[in-house]
Amino acid sequence: MADKLDKLLSDYFTGILDANIKLRRAELKYFSKHAPDENIGGGRKQNDYSNPVELDMIREEDDEMLSAWIMQKEIIETFFNITVEPQRTILYERYGHKKSWLAISLIVHANERTCQRWRDNFKNGIAGHLYSTLNGMSF
């Protein structure tokens, strides 16, 4: 499960998670799965109500993948915003720029093991909230 969490953090800090959310919304908007109208009775449809904005919103809310990605993004943003500056730098450099622990320790002026421990503390803090969204996801 740690591999999925590392992948998710990497996707968040590199912008892939945002791109996935935008792409999924576009897929839902333009490639909808509507069944063909099977009204062969010859009469008019009664109670025909069409509101495309509401239908788009319903389609987005019902999509499990999109909902999971949005929740993951919000959880990571919430925890990232309440962390202190050296930990933010560590997370951004490790997952956003893929730097080594030695390079990160030189940037934040801390021991490599201290940087890893700060990263582990962040991951442990978000892990319980994210595992419910990671179970059904494949990476």
Automatic annotation (TrEMBL):
Pfam families named in the record: DUF722
InterPro entries referenced in this protein's UniProt entry, alphabetically: DUF722, RinA
Domain of life: Bacteria
Protein's name according to its UniProt entry: DUF722 domain-containing protein
